Amino acid sequence: MYDGSSIALVQLVAEYLVWLDEDLRLQPQLAESWTAEDGGKRWTFTLRRGVRFTDGTPMDSSAVKASFDRLLDPASKSAAASAFATILGPGGVSAPDASTVTFTLQRPFTEFPYLVSAGNFNAVILKADYAGDFTRSAIGTGPFTLTSYDPSAGASFARNTGYWQPGKPYLDAVDVHFYPDDQADLIALQGDQIDTQFLSVASLVTPLAGSAGIVVDKAIGTGLTAFTLRTDRPPFDRKEVRQALAYGLNRPDVLTSIGSGVGVLGNDHLLAPAFRGAPTGLQQRAQDRAKVAELLAAAGVPTLSFTLTFDPPSRDYAVTIQNQLQQVGITVELDQRTSSDFYGGNQTTDTPWLFTTANLVAWAGRAVPSQLITPMVTSGGVWNGSKYANPALDRAAAAYDAASTDQERAAQAQIIAEALREDVPVIVSYWSGTVRAFNSATFAGIRAHPSSYVDFRSVSRV
């Protein structure tokens, strides 16, 4: 699953140990409870009893272990594996008995339940003998069963009459229609051909709110487009030059024009306001032309020009950056690549998204800040495109992961945020929000979700 629509389809059929609600809170799903030992290095999950897959097979610890063993196998190349990097490796999952699963981590990680939740969207629990081709044999524990699938038209789902949660789902069926583009999807919503959307585009649906019974629900998210600067090569090897760029942007205008006004301003660190324990008290960075000139002069760079590399989805943002920085005397040349080129090449030596001097990378929302901080800005991070290295930040990131109290975690979050805001390896102009449009005259229980999920267990007809 690499896109929101495929995730939504699978989540109708398959479930997680832990669900992640629209406020990024953990909710028991296939696991009833979990406990930590050894300072957050060993986690034991107690499974819900009596749950069966739709073919009648019991959902037990062997299925859970097999599901995670598949994800952790390097040969699978699963997108979920990146969330476990340096935390959980092959062989780290055991099943002491039929209703217990133990995860032995490589290092303490006190927010580990988020990594086996819907926040790590590929971590659904499938049968132990699952061999692939989900659309031909979609067997899960979820509220619905897949009855038909046509990649060019849509999919149909029927109520799972043996679902473990009494009385749910409320719906007898769900029919999903595929459309060639966002505009066609919008017309279908306006014409009552569909009741809601998996992925609503804020700029398209927001003007419809309140018309013909259409409601547009909003959620604060944790996704971002990172404006990444190589700290190990000119001109961005000088901190003052990176700070100058940060002061050159008009963030409210970026949020309005690129984020459609849905989201919150960023402040050049990776702890979104939606994250628990996000730092407070840091002055919001704003556009300051005098500060730009002062910083560039201090760096001995009276005139600045650079090339910004990106792929098509980030084009509007790149043009906005170009225009805003031109207003403060900085010249930006735009280098648009195809997505396959931008993310292609050798991932350890020359892929553009990790090795160009400055670039824009869209990051989907994460459940916990470590999923952004560890790969993106720690020394040697697997996706450290800025080549930033700060031992103090590395120590704080490790301490954050090992923190046993919210107070400890907040203290380390403050250190991380201050370091990133000062050093600016990554400019974060805004954190994206999500919206979901639906027809309130026909259905209730539909909400926007930071990760664009839909919990169809609670959707009901009005």
Task: Let me know the average pLDDT.
Answer: 94
Helix tally equals 14
Large-scale geometry: globular
Alpha-carbon distance between the two ends: 31 Å
Please tally the β strands and state the result: 18
Largest sheet: 5 strands, antiparallel
Textual characterization of the structure:
The relative contact order is 0.15. The chain has 14 helices and 18 strands. The mean pLDDT is 94. With 462 residues, it is α+β, with helices and mostly antiparallel strands. The chain has helices at residues 4-13, 61-72, 81-84, 182-190, 202-205, 239-247, 251-257, 289-298, 315-327, 339-342, 352-355, 370-377, 391-402, 406-423, and strands spanning 18-20, 26-28, 31-37, 42-47, 93-97, 100-104, 144-150, 154-159, 173-177, 214-229, 263-265, 304-310, 330-336, 358-363, 426-427, 430-439, 443-444, 460-461. Helix 6 (239-247) runs antiparallel to helix 8 (289-298) and helix 13 packs antiparallel against helix 14. The strands form six sheets. Strands 10, 11, 14, 15 and 16 form a five-stranded antiparallel sheet that branches. Strands 3-4-6-5 form a four-stranded antiparallel sheet, with helices on one face. A three-stranded antiparallel sheet has the order 7-8-9, with helices on one face.
Q: In brief, what are we looking at here?
A:
This protein is of the alpha+beta class and 462 residues long.
Q: Secondary-structure blueprint of this entry?
A:
Blueprint: H1 4-13, E1 18-20, E2 26-28, E3 31-37, E4 42-47, H2 61-72, H3 81-84, E5 93-97, E6 100-104, E7 144-150, E8 154-159, E9 173-177, H4 182-190, H5 202-205, E10 214-229, H6 239-247, H7 251-257, E11 263-265, H8 289-298, E12 304-310, H9 315-327, E13 330-336, H10 339-342, H11 352-355, E14 358-363, H12 370-377, H13 391-402, H14 406-423, E15 426-427, E16 430-439, E17 443-444, E18 460-461
Parallel strand pairs: 12-13
Antiparallel strand pairs: 1-2, 3-4, 4-6, 5-6, 7-8, 8-9, 10-14, 10-15, 10-16, 11-16, 17-18
Helix pairs in contact: 6-8, 13-14
